[in-house]
Amino acid sequence: MHAELEVHFRDSAAKALLDPQLRANFRRAMDGLMAKRKAQFPDPADLQDLRDLSTAIRSRSLLNLPDLLEQFEANCTKNGIRVHWAETCEEANELILGILQSKGAKTLVKGKSMVSEEMHLNAFLEQHGIEALESDLGEYIIQLDGETPSHIIMPAIHKNKDQIARQFSQKIKDAKYTEDVDELTAMARKVLRQKFLDADAGLSGVNFAVAETGTLCLVENEGNGRMSTHVPPLHIAVMGLEKVVARLEDVAPLYAILTRSATGQAVSTYFNLITGPRGTGEKDGPQDVHLVILDNGRSRIYADPQLRATLRCIRCGACMNHCPVYTRVGGHAYEAVYPGPIGKILTPQMEGVGVRHDLIHGSSLCGACGEVCPVEIPIPEILVRLRREATHTDAGSQVAGKGTGRTRTEDWAWRLWAGLLKRPRLYRLAAWFATRFGKALPAGAPLIQNWTRTRTKPVPARRSLQERMRSEAQSGGTRHD
Amino acid sequence: MTDATTSSAASSSARAAILSRLRAAGGGGPLPPLDVTVLERRQWPARERMERLRKGMEAVHTEFLEATPGNWTAVARAFCDREGLKNLLYGPGSEAGARLAADWAADRGAGQGAGGTQLMPYDRPVEAFKDELFNGVDAGFTGTVGGVAETGGLLLMPDAAEPRLMSLVPPIHLALLRASTIQDSFWSAVKALGWGRRLPPNALMISGPSKTADIEQTLAYGVHGPKRLIVILVDDLELA
């Protein structure tokens, strides 16, 4: 329990800050995204109404979650979609492998799915001899370099045009070097269209799952989602269990606020509703559609009335676009599938507040994330709550890894403090020493250097407040207003 | 099929465990009310709906051809000839597809436009002509079941007569839209079309040609799907 904690975010954030190219790429991208979002919401009152409605819809969905999931499953099954459930990422990976193997599928073409990133599905399938190819342009770009997404909506946002031009000319067969975005896009189109044509199976995520109809909704601009879900003979969809909403008409406002918050678009190019495999007489579409519903810690998050709000998230990425920390360090510094503010509350709840303690502390609590969140998730409040959970073992709490973020040093510091406060004489003595000799303490001393590394060392007052008050009372009570 | 049996057993035990955890967490409680006035505010008269849709879709590079109920097949044909299209994929079983084919055949009988764009029926399962569909088709023609004024968008319900890939795989998508079918918003369209009660295996909204901004937030059109979306906008408002 008192093992020294692993540190990921602090060190990689420090490294990222020293990379001017990375910082310039993110700065430009985030400034653009913030401006575009703002232009989509010219009327603050209208935006607030839409946020209130969206928040209410997601809250209602969560209040009825088990019933809605059962209704959704029953309707999917009626429509011919095979529904599977997985408690862990390992189970979900095995399920998908089983489905692919039962069809003899060797190649899988993927639409963008953050849940599949959560599962590390690609690596798992490659180990079993199945090629998993990302087809979203951004995902394709980072897969060529063996990287992970640095943003949940724009996975290759950390790269600039020159970097992509170099990469394409090296990694795509017969490609010439060009920095023209249209030509680069055309190159990827050529490679990927052949892959869509040849793939044995397609995989997608799910933006919204509709209980009343048993429908999977997919939001996209490129058409790779439609290609992946309609061209191959087998379509497998993966979703987190929180994605379900009651009615299709509830999806309309969520969709409206999703695209505007995410990329500042009033509408995406495609809004695709999949309610079943190829129907009677249909000439295309997959013969089989499977859906894997993943828990991976979500039901535990659900159990806590305050933390449950985390599951309202519709994955728009507005919180990272507006985060002063994310903008400066980029997505990779978080060393987590979900970066930025939402990742800071989601990852520790999934993986444990102890192991990912530096994520919950890596925030200035400025509140920008909560302010722009389209479903009003109180991210700063949840961060504060998780900071407590990391060092306490409250009886009612179900938070993963609660209390494991308490270090031996922190423990001793608190014990020392408690000891001093209980013994007035000792406290006064300590205060006397601190005020007289605190200045002499070197800035590089252990513990103190955590503060002084980036700030000047505070100098204690020459006399403690108690001392001053006592002497002033004796000398006739001078008042300081 | 031991694998499938084991995985389905694992899946059903996962299902039971997940649902029981969710139920134990205690849902219920009063549901927050849904105030949809923000959605109801989005309403426009018919002609404004048409203009709004057009403006919204043109902003994302959709092209429009103006037509009337009587001349839209000729407008489509003129476009195909102008662009020098080799062929146009259509659904012979759909109302719009049948009308297009009949009018083009009549023109041809009357000696107009010999040669030019050939109509190509999508009349067999995709497996029988996947390669040709990907590599040998210049354009696809589909009808629509409506449009969305607020943001701009076409509503499609692909089916046996008008398969899913017609609006996706060919580099040009030609779509027929009757102005009288344009709804205020996606929300009102869902209600008007009864999509919440029953949906076919696939339904969708399309607002423009395929696009991406994944390279340096620079917009590029025609990434995976159609490079161009052409709407044949039939003004039937005076008749409605």
Overall, the morphology of chain B is globular
Number of helical stretches of at least 4 residues of chain A:
23
**CATH architecture heading of the largest domain in chain A:** 3-Layer(aba) Sandwich
Classified by CATH, the class of chain B is Alpha Beta
Number of folding domains of chain A? 3
Sequence of strands across the biggest β-sheet of chain A: 1-10-7-4-2-3
Largest interface, C-beta closer than 8 angstroms, per-chain residues: A-B, 105 and 90 residues
Strand content of chain A: 5-15%
CATH architecture of chain B: 3-Layer(aba) Sandwich
What is the rounded Rg of chain B?
22 Å
CATH topology of the largest domain in chain A: Rossmann fold
Number of strands of chain A: 10
Q: Radius of gyration of chain A, rounded?
A: 26 Å
Strand residue content of chain B: 15-25%
Order of helices and strands of chain B: HHHEHEHEHEEEEEHEEEE
Query: Assembly state here?
Result: heterodimer
Shape of chain A: elongated
CATH class of the largest domain in chain A: Alpha Beta
CATH topology of chain B: Rossmann fold
Compute the number of helices of chain B. 7
Task: Walk me through what this model shows.
- The complex is a heterodimer of chains A (481) and B (240).
- Chain A is of the alpha/beta class.
- Chain A folds into three domains: 1-40 and 304-406, Fumarate Reductase Iron-sulfur Protein, Chain B, domain 2, CATH 1.10.1060; 50-296, Rossmann fold, CATH 3.40.50; 408-474, no CATH class.
- Chain A is built from 23 helices and ten strands.
- In chain A, strands 1-10-7-4-2-3 form a six-stranded parallel sheet, with helices on both faces.
- The radius of gyration of chain A is 26 Å and the shape is elongated.
- The two termini of chain A are 48 Å apart.
- The mean pLDDT of chain A is 94.
- Chain B is an alpha/beta fold and 240 residues long.
- In chain B, 33% of the residues lie in helices and 20% in strands.
- In chain B, strand 10 (211-212) and strand 11 (220-221) form a beta hairpin.
- In chain B, helix 4 crosses helix 5.
- The termini of chain B are far apart.
- Strand 9 of chain A pairs antiparallel with strand 9 of chain B, so a sheet runs across the interface.
